[in-house]
Amino acid sequence: MANKIQLPQETVGIILDNYCNKKYGLIKSGKEVGVSSYIVRRLLLEKGIHIRSFSEAAVASNQTRRLYSVNDDYFSTENHNMAYFLGFLAADGTVNKDSNQIKIGLSSVDKDFLEQLRQEIEAEHPIISYQTANGYNVSELKFSSSKIKQDLSKYNIIPRKTYSFSFPINLDKKYWIDFIRGYFDGDGSVSTAGPSAIRFQICSYRPQVLETIVNYLYEEYDIPKVSIQQQMKESGHYLYNFQYSNSSTRKLFDILYYPGCLCLPRKYEKFKSII
Questions:
Q1: Taking Cα atoms as reference points, which of 263, 255, 275 lies closest to residue 110?
Q2: Model confidence over 4-41: pLDDT tens digits?
Q3: How far is 215 from 221, CA to CA, in rounded Å?
Q4: Distance between CA 64 and CA 53 in Å, rounded?
Q5: For a 10 Å CB count at each end of the chain, is N or C smaller?
Q6: pTM of the model
Q7: Integer distance in angstroms from the first to the last C-alpha of the chain?
Q8: Tens digits of residue pLDDT in 203-221
Q9: Distance, CA of 19 to CA of 64 (rounded, Å)
């Protein structure tokens, strides 16, 4: 049997910290103290520490390479703000298919709100602002988290969700109104249709989403049901929408908003001014 590794206790401590806590690889764990990967491996085996497989090492490497942190567990616990954020992401977010990146892009007039969302999930990632080729000023928040991507998938927020998303009925129903407010902030509008007529509208490429919302608002708040309209887009897909008129729209304002709720300020102020 090979002799036990004889290293200064301080050196052993540095190696173990590098490998176990900082998630460095075998080579990097011993490099700063001049110890080869072979010796590091023997030391770990002596200590009964699991040697990471290639796939495990790849995951650990991705974690250590992440420049900015984020609250990976934000979407693991349901609450009012979490449900709102889910709704907003369902309408206006993008989940990358080939990485763990989640992106929210808005007009730069809403940059302060994007900053509020950034703080909500404790993301260190900077907000990037730029002008598109068409002359639009946009701001983007991008963050990466395998845990968040996994949690979002439980609520049907997945890559290429535009034509496949379905209302996350597994979300606790007491938070549905927060989800709907978030979805409205992403894919809804409120407008006037004449001197005294006002309209509340939400659109989606999936009629099931709208049907669930309409049924819920009727069952929980006695708001009369409306029909789902459809319109063929240039992409060849149907875009669906529903509209509520005067009395229902006024009632919805009081239902959707409450003191301290998370919402898009610009849309809230417009809604309030129309009411």
A1: 263
A2: 778 888 888 889 988 888 788 898 899 989 999 999 99
A3: 10
A4: 16
A5: N
A6: 0.76
A7: 83
A8: 999 999 999 999 999 999 9
A9: 11
